[in-house]
Design a protein that fits this description.
alpha/beta, 8-stranded mixed beta sheet, single chain, binds fe (iii) ion, binds 3,4-dihydroxybenzoic acid, 10 helices, 284 residues
Length: 284
């Protein structure tokens, strides 16, 4: 028996969503439609809780700074503390890792010529905890171990969509060569359109976002060819976080000649803070 990837989950990671959850504001008129879009997802996740989540996200100059900028980093620790991003750590559980599978993925993926940075200690910021909160609500402990994969999408140069898709395929091969019957989900997070800085701050492009969701489902190989400048121009400077979704998509069976995934849930909502929120669940 070996491990397998059963599903991929995609979601934005807006920090204000975490604040709304932590302060019990989810029923306020501004937030209600957003959280309503995750109700079915929470039920699905409760029924399909995996043994491990490989959670692809970006650190926002929290664990890493300009001193060291890993393009792709894998968290191999047994535990990750919740980061203090300036207002104290979010009141959510610490994240339990899976050092054995993470070590195996690092070994396998590096041998497949992807140079992952191995991180034995790091705090995790809203990029990782907000997606967990959206899918799990407010549990006293997260329901399964999480392997963080941190991607640099904050400081240039950042990895191409093509490289992200290929990394996903490499992670899939790594998981499938792990000698234990584990149900693994891979999550791609960040995005959708948003720009937090400069004259275009507040930019939202729903047309771009919806087309991205369509193409992520139907033709990820073509989507992976999209250059960064297109994301930046169309979806804003922080919209380029979306390239991370291609890592999760690349780990789905169809990229390795299997059947197309089943889309279990699709949701799109504007606004949440400065950001358009997109969300997909795909099953293999
Ligand atoms: C916002 C969105 C982000 O992706 C982020 O990392 C920080 C802030 C926002 O919309 O406020
Ligand atoms: Fe972000």
């Amino acid at each position: 028996m070996s491990a397998h990837i059963s599903a991929s989950v995609y979601t934005s990671h807006v920090p204000a969503i975490g604040v709304a959850l932590d302060l019990g504001k989810t029923d306020e008129p501004y937030w209600r439609p957003l959280f309503a879009g995750y109700e079915d997802s929470k039920s699905w996740f409760a029924e399909h809780t995996p043994d491990v989540i490989v959670l692809v996200y970006n650190d926002h100059a929290t664990a890493f700074s300009l001193e060291i900028i890993p393009t792709f980093a894998i968290g191999t620790a047994a535990h990750f503390d919740v980061a203090d991003e300036g207002w104290g750590p979010r009141p959510v559980p610490g994240v339990v890792g899976h050092p054995e599978l993470a070590g195996h993925i690092a070994h396998s993926v590096i041998q497949q010529d992807f140079d992952l940075t191995i991180v034995n200690q790091m705090d995790v910021d809203h990029g990782l905890t907000v997606p967990l909160s959206l899918m799990c609500g407010r549990p006293s402990a997260w329901p399964c171990p999480v392997i963080p994969i941190a991607v640099n999408v904050v400081h240039y140069p950042i990895p191409s969509g093509r490289r992200c898709l290929d990394l996903g395929a490499a992670i899939r091969r790594a998981v499938e060569s792990y000698d234990e019957d584990l149900d693994v989900q891979i999550w791609g997070t960040g995005g959708m359109s948003h720009q937090l800085q400069g004259p275009r701050a507040g930019l939202i492009n729903s047309e771009f976002d919806r087309a991205f969701l369509d193409e992520l489902i139907a033709d990820p190989a073509e989507l992976a060819q999209k250059p960064h400048v297109d994301y930046m121009r169309e979806a804003g400077s922080e919209g380029v976080e979306l390239v991370m979704w291609l890592i999760a998509r690349g780990a789905m069976a169809d990229l390795a000649g299997g059947p197309a995934p089943t889309v279990r849930h699709r949701f799109y909502h504007v606004p949440a803070s400065n950001t358009a929120v997109g969300h997909l669940i795909m099953e293999n």
